[in-house]
Specification:
By secondary structure, the protein is of the alpha+beta class. It has one domain (2-102). The protein has helices spanning 2-6, 15-21, 30-43, 87-102, and strands at 10-14, 49-54, 61-66, 69-75. Strand 3 (61-66) and strand 4 form a beta hairpin.
Length: 103
């Protein structure tokens, strides 16, 4: 899987899933997600834009990162009142639009 990620320009992932792929413990919060970034840089060559989702349900927050640069961390607006089914897909389409508009 890691060679495929090296060819990507943009990767959406839940931080715990990516951590397990890298052989690391699942991060519990933002500080632990940030500590995963150097491991990610060592494991995956290139400079894809990583949008790492995390929080209690992995939908609440996103850390945007590109090799050596923490670009931003933001809230997705997800709450327990929101319909979970499809939320990540709608979020991804909004993020794609925003990031591509900024490029």
């Amino acid at each position: 899987m890691l060679p495929v990620l090296a060819r990507a320009d943009l990767v959406f992932s839940e931080a715990p899933t990516l951590a397990r792929l890298l052989g690391q413990p699942a991060p519990a919060g933002g500080d632990e997600v940030r500590s995963l970034l150097p491991v990610l840089d060592r494991a995956v060559p290139g400079s894809p834009l990583w949008l790492l989702r995390f929080g209690p349900t992995c939908l609440e927050r996103v850390l945007a990162y590109q090799r050596g640069r923490l670009l931003m961390e933001y809230s997705t607006g997800y709450t327990g009142d929101a319909v979970r089914a499809g939320f990540g897909d709608r979020l991804a389409s909004c993020e794609l639009y925003w990031w591509l508009s900024e490029a």
